[in-house]
């Protein structure tokens, strides 16, 4: 009788999961998209968030300073191996058009007294990256816009060339406004609009669960009622996705395209940087038609 009584007195095992399991979202992509409504994440965000103190600047969520456990590892990689930095938050503007027209107008916003210019022979061939300071058109040495780096696409024999200009996100709007003014570019008819996302009934249920979990754990923000897409957000912290991302000149044919977050940028530091690149990148075989 005592044994039977002890069996009945045993407490039933709790069916509730642990706190970590309760906080785990069913659809990580939907939850990550919800958290990127105001600040875009870089592709290396998850790695940085575990090892760095994150800050929200210029429309991005960036790693500001490493935690105490990361200092030795970063220094060791930089001194003896290879340290990689994600600079994808830097903005990229692409200029396409005739080489003579590009050089003619770009000469108005730079000066040879500050260093290399866009028409330097070593940079014009596309073999080297150049850096210079930009000023407002015909205003040197006053009204400096800021430092930029640039690289030309190697020429294929035609008079049309491509030029990529990289700048800090804080300088993007001023430089873009000045480039559109000197090239007399207006908005093109094509406006980038995100593709509609088709989801199944099961994914809709997962989204509802994610939203409900978010409301329980955190106060609802101003945009809490908006639908959360289930695909990864591909955007730019310095540009509205519903705004135009390309501008063309009707007189010269020069086109300016915003390639921010479309062309990623990384920096390698350390004695083994070249070895890492040679092992990672494989040359493609040439195919002749």
Task: Walk me through this protein's architecture.
The chain is α+β, with helices and mostly antiparallel strands and 289 residues long. Among the domains are: 24-68, no CATH class; 91-189 and 244-263. Helices cover 29% and strands 22% of the residues. The protein has 10 helices and 12 strands. The protein has a 7-stranded antiparallel beta sheet. A 3-stranded mixed beta sheet has the order 1-3-2. Strands 4-12 form a two-stranded antiparallel ribbon. The protein is elongated, with a radius of gyration of 26 Å.
Biggest sheet strand order reads 6-7-8-5-11-10-9
**Multimeric state of these chains?**
single chain
Helical amount: 25-40%
Distance between the termini: 91 Å
Please outline the major beta sheet: 7 strands, antiparallel
The shape, in one word, is elongated
The total of helices stands at: 10
Q: Spell the H/E element sequence.
A: HHHEHEEHEEHHEEEHEHEEEH
What is the mean predicted local confidence, pLDDT?
A: 77
Uncertain segments: 191-200, 213-233
Number of beta-strand segments:
12
SSE inventory with pairings:
Blueprint: H1 2-9, H2 19-23, H3 28-35, E1 40-41, H4 45-49, E2 52-57, E3 60-66, H5 71-80, E4 83-86, E5 91-98, H6 99-106, H7 121-124, E6 130-135, E7 144-152, E8 160-167, H8 172-183, E9 185-187, H9 201-217, E10 246-249, E11 255-258, E12 266-269, H10 273-280
Parallel strand pairs: 1-3
Antiparallel strand pairs: 2-3, 4-12, 5-8, 5-11, 6-7, 7-8, 9-10, 10-11
InterPro entries: Pop1 (IPR039182), Pop1_N (IPR009723)
Pfam families: POP1_N (PF06978)
Protein name: POP1 protein
